[in-house]
Specification:
Layout lengths: L8 E4 L2 E3 L2 E3 L4 E2 L3 E2 L4 E3 L2 E4 L4 E4 L7 H9 L9 E3 L5 H4 L2 H7 L4 E4 L1 H11 L6 E3 L5 E3 L4 E6 L9 E5 L4 E3 L15 H4 L1 H16 L3 H14 L3 E2 L10 H12 L6 E6 L5 H15 L3 E6 L5 H8 L4 E5 L2 E2 L2 E2 L1 H12 L6 E8 L5 H8 L6 E9 L4 H20 L2
Parallel strand pairs: 8-9, 9-10, 10-11, 15-16, 17-18, 17-19, 19-22, 22-23
Antiparallel strand pairs: 1-2, 2-7, 3-6, 4-5, 7-8, 12-13, 13-14, 14-15, 20-21
Helix pairs in contact: 6-8, 6-10, 7-8, 9-13
Bound molecules: MU-OXO-diiron.
């Protein structure tokens, strides 16, 4: 599609990307690294009678959003501001846009209404609640709405324009990319999917069941273009739909993730023995030293690793803090991990194993074994590690 001045592009007839890019942002939710920055995509849909702005932008980018809308129309004449999701990176500028477009309505779900009033002080009379039975006619373009709660907040919904086959799912199918490319096929499908998987790990992995429900709804729509509110758009929607089906589904890879930290090489030796034993059985192993690995990479690997091995020495009576962080991440992101094993070494008193097992309480994760070695692993510990490899192989064979 033709590029227009001020960095807006037309993605379908009279539908324009008016988003903002934030290449210097380096962290999301104070947790996940953003090596490629991110974008806050907003879309202007211009019917023959009415106009809708779908999603807005992050705090601090309001003027840029207004400038971009102004390339196409007078922002004060917008009729609808659609809030698919109330998180501030997409919704905080809703109030600003409504203050300019005094006749406009905020269009959102019932729970979105509560959030808009609570977070952004949007007056109740300015809000129009929609659901799957609703549609808004813009003139040659219809806004339809898809209930998609818990992706990843309770109020989330998608907007769809059947005349053009364009789906606006906000965070769903998003990726943190702020480069010049607008489409996955321009950025590179493989590279895009790696970043989309990292995004999925942090944002959608805890909500795999709602994600699967939404995927079925999206498949039924057969969209021609998926336009999320972070990162690139998909002109070949099957690419990201199939990837999400894999990541959110029940089918697991025959794969083990080993995440470890070692102070003097004893714990590292133990995890390496296990790694070699697993590889010799034809099992894919991804092993990461937590002290030098991005927490985002670990989260991404958790998406399709049914078995997690934590390597952690005892430090001052407990687990090395870096290992506790990795373990808590698994729990917090509700990773699909089925089984955990712990490999640990200590000098004069243990404690790491007990603490790590405690951190996993309240989950459905089964601890297969915990090999705790005083000093370097000896024959007895090595033998247990080799037996653990057999156990892991057996568990992987039982998985769907
Ligand atoms: Fe991109 Fe949940 O906000």
């Amino acid at each position: 599609m033709a590029k227009l001045p001020m960095g807006t592009i037309t993605i379908a007839p009279n539908i324009h990307w008016v988003g903002t890019k934030d290449p210097s942002r380096r962290l999301f939710d104070g947790l996940i690294p953003l090596p490629h920055g991110t974008s806050y995509n907003a879309y202007l849909v211009m019917g023959t009678d009415k106009t809708a702005l779908i999603d807005t932008t992050n705090p601090g980018f309001e003027n840029e959003l207004v400038d971009k809308v102004s390339q196409h129309m007078d922002p004060t004449a917008i009729d609808y501001v659609v809030m698919n999701h109330a998180e501030p990176d997409h919704a905080s500028a809703c109030a600003h846009m409504l203050s300019l477009a005094k006749g406009a309505k905020l269009v959102t779900s019932a729970k979105g209404k509560e959030a808009a009033m609570m977070y952004f002080a949007v007056p109740e009379e300015k809000i129009e609640v929609v659901d799957e039975s609703s549609s808004l006619e813009l003139g040659g373009k219809t806004l339809k709405f898809i209930d998609a709660p818990w992706l990843h907040w309770p109020e989330t919904m998608f907007t769809y324009i059947p005349e053009d086959g364009v789906l606006f799912p906000c965070d769903f199918f998003g990726s943190h990319i702020a480069y010049g490319e607008f489409y996955a096929d321009e950025f590179g499908n493989g590279h895009t999917l790696e970043l989309a998987k990292l995004y999925f790990a942090e944002i959608m992995m805890p909500f795999r069941k709602p994600a699967m429900k939404a995927i079925e709804k999206v498949k039924a729509l057969e969209p021609k273009l998926i336009a999320p509110s972070h990162g690139v758009m998909y002109r070949e929607p099957k690419l990201i739909i199939d990837a999400y089906t894999d990541w959110a589904g029940e089918k697991m890879k025959r794969k083990v993730l080993i995440a470890y930290v070692s102070m003097w090489g004893r714990t590292e030796h133990m995890v390496k023995v296990l790694k070699e034993a697993l590889i010799s059985k034809g099992i894919e192993v991804q092993m990461f030293d937590l002290t030098v690995t991005s927490i985002g990479e670990v989260a991404k690997q958790l998406v399709d690793s049914p078995v997690l091995v934590i390597g952690a020495p005892t430090v001052l009576g407990g687990a090395h803090p870096v290992a506790t962080y990795g373990t808590l991440l698994t729990k917090t992101l509700r990773a699909p991990t089925k089984h955990v094993a712990i490999l640990s070494s200590y000098g004069w008193s243990g404690g790491a194993v007990k603490q790590l097992e405690g951190l996993l309480e309240g989950t459905n994760i089964d601890v297969l074994d915990a090999v705790d070695s005083k000093g370097p692993a000896g024959d007895e510990e090595i033998s247990r590690i080799l037996k653990l490899a057999d156990t892991i192989a057996g568990k992987l064979d039982e998985l769907p």
